[in-house]
Specification:
Layout lengths: L2 H20 L4 H6 L4 H17 L11 E3 L29 E4 L17 H12 L7 H9 L17 H10 L5 E6 L2 H15 L3 E5 L4 E10 L11 E7 L6 E2 L3 E2 L5 E4 H7 L17 E6 L8
Parallel strand pairs: 1-3
Antiparallel strand pairs: 2-5, 3-10, 4-5, 4-10, 5-6, 6-9, 7-8
């Protein structure tokens, strides 16, 4: 079958399926979103789009970096002996830090247009913070519409967005160098995220809600600079949550752009990866983070 006939066949299938599905929901209820009918209709359209797109490609993806747990460290490191006659370097002071990349989080916030678009919205907000994109609905739709360029079964068994697709989307819009990492502990994940933010001055993306949701981390608080003190404890993060201002029956109220999420909120929301559609050997039971590894030569 040539390309023209294949496209025609896909379009006809979509028309038929949408017409059949349309009989399930009354148009008035859809447009008013009565009893959630509008969201139900959107899910029907998402399934149709997935059917039209065909099987999820079996493309290779960049290997996930699995980070082994760090050994426990004493709260203070012993001083390094100084050779006779040499001048001792000043010992760094252990002071709390409060790092915020984004001083205008409202300007860089984008609500996910569909309740399944947290990934393109997260990519969009990251690009906005970096000065590489805007927060318009048009731009979010553009990013979401390109997912089939990057999707892979290994990345998302359901198709569409997985963390590897998000790194490819960021690179496509001028932010290369993001790496998917999997951590055994939340503490290690947050410490590495904090180091990356302070080193690269780029946002980090956390996969919250057991991998079902995207948070953009733009800063943190810690009891010491994690670049200097390996045992620094991150007490919370500054987050852009594309779910805001929507309420979740599972996760509760979402928070405004730039809200500081304390340790209790991180424990409640930033949970190990566990997806119902199947196994992901390098991710299951681990905390997944998209870490920037390059410092972009751009401003905010």
């Amino acid at each position: 079958m040539n390309d023209r006939r294949a496209r025609r066949s896909r379009v006809l299938k979509r028309i038929v399926l949408v017409a059949v599905a349309g009989g399930v929901l009354l148009s008035g209820a859809i447009w008013s979103d009565a009893a959630g009918a509008g969201q139900a209709w959107q899910k029907v359209l998402d399934r149709v789009d997935r059917f039209v797109a065909g099987p999820v490609p079996d493309r290779s993806i960049e290997p996930i970096v699995v980070v082994t747990p760090r050994p426990s460290l004493p709260p203070t490191l012993p001083p390094t002996p100084v050779p006779s006659g040499a001048t001792a370097a000043p010992t760094p002071m252990r002071l709390p830090v409060d790092v915020q990349l984004d001083r205008d989080p409202k300007a860089h916030f984008a609500h996910e247009i569909r309740d399944t678009w947290c990934s393109p919205a997260g990519v969009q907000m990251t690009l906005a913070v970096l000065g590489l994109g805007d927060t318009s609905d048009r731009f979010q739709r553009e990013i979401a519409g390109r997912v089939h360029e990057w999707e892979s079964y290994d990345d998302s068994h359901n198709g569409d967005w997985g963390p590897a697709a998000m790194t490819q989307a960021l690179a496509a819009y001028g932010a290369p160098g993001y790496q998917v990492r999997a951590y055994e502990t939340r503490a290690d994940a947050l410490r590495d995220a904090a180091v990356a933010i302070s080193t690269t001055e780029e946002p980090v993306i956390l996969l919250a809600w057991r991998g079902a949701h995207t948070w953009v981390m733009t800063g943190y608080r810690a009891d010491a600079d994690p670049r200097i003190f390996p045992d620094a404890v991150v007490s919370g993060t500054y987050i852009l949550d594309p779910w805001y201002p929507t309420y979740s029956s599972i996760w509760g109220n979402s928070d405004p752009p730039g809200t500081f999420q304390d340790a209790a909120e991180m424990v409640r929301n930033f949970l190990p990866w566990k997806r119902p559609e199947g196994k992901y050997p390098d991710r299951d039971g681990r905390f997944i983070v998209l870490i920037p590894t390059l410092r972009q030569a751009i401003g905010y």
